[in-house]
Design a protein that fits this description.
mainly alpha; 4 helices; 95 residues; 0% strand
Length: 95
């Protein structure tokens, strides 16, 4: 638990939990849209480069988020099972 608190303090104040989650959603959306575009425009180097950049950016952001706040989904394991350590979304009142 102490490690979790240290990670939260180390996280940049500009990147609150909600801001990080919103950025992840935006990047995931952009990645999906670019993938659909690339299905019909496979030779568009600019779109491919942007897709790759967003994929790296979202991976890095998800890793950072999970180190501070715990797993985003069951598909992102952490060093221990932390689903039950914090209040459920409906218990926090900000869902």
């Amino acid at each position: 638990m102490q490690e979790l608190e240290e990670n939260r303090r180390d996280c940049n104040n500009d990147n609150t939990r909600k801001e990080m989650a919103d950025k992840i959603k935006c990047l995931d959306f952009a990645i999906t849209e670019l993938a659909l575009y690339l299905d019909t425009h496979p030779d568009d180097e600019k779109a491919l480069c942007l897709h790759n950049r967003y994929c790296k950016e979202v991976k890095d952001l998800k890793d950072k988020y999970q180190k501070v706040y715990g797993p985003l989904t069951i598909n992102y394991p952490c060093n221990k099972w932390r689903w039950i350590e914090e209040p459920w979304p409906w218990e926090r009142g900000n869902y």
